[in-house]
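DM from R.C. (forwarded with permission)

"hey, sorry to bug you on a friday — could you get me a structure for this? deadline for the figure draft is monday and I only need the backbone to look sensible"
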Amino acid sequence: PTDLTFEYDKSATSYKIYGSLKSSLEENEIELQLGDATTPGLVIENGDVKKVETTVTADFSFADITFTPTDLTFLYNESSDLFEMYGGADTSFDGETISVSLGDSDAPGLEYKDSIVDEINMGVSSDFTIKDLEIEPKDLTFEYDKSATSYKMHGSLKSKVEGNEIELKLGNSNEPGLVIKNGDVKKVETSVTAEFSFADIT
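My reply, with the result:
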């Protein structure tokens, strides 16, 4: 805890905890806000934890990628017995920045169970650049590969070669076209999926 309050709510016959704290994702520190007095992030009724819901308040790193929260929620899902994270963030690695979505409350992008990050699955909707390659995502998935402790990106996109638009396929989940490990881009490989023109030749 960095500034936590633990009090009894007589009107609701329950206990509540709110304020700021630090936690960790596999030894990676993360700063969180556990609500406030009006909307506490942790509620205990009849000796049972009924709610754990926080917002991420500062940058954090996982597997050598930095996440800058724009609207991230981190909460405990009682029915699944795991923690989930969803919302928006910017990711930074190897001099590049990509805006991503970690899903929503119905389909969260990050799952954390038994002190292990089991899944990170992110959607990419804004344009970005990788190694000077301009990318306009059409149907891109950006995810964490737990077995390889790396990130991979796959799906379809548009790019430009000297102002000429070109449609590309960035592999698939089994053979992703972009791989990031230890914070460095290790692979960028695409296939061309449609006709394009260059220097007036199609």
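R.C.: lifesaver. Residues 34 and 41 are 4 Å apart (CA to CA).
me: no worries. The mean pLDDT is 93.
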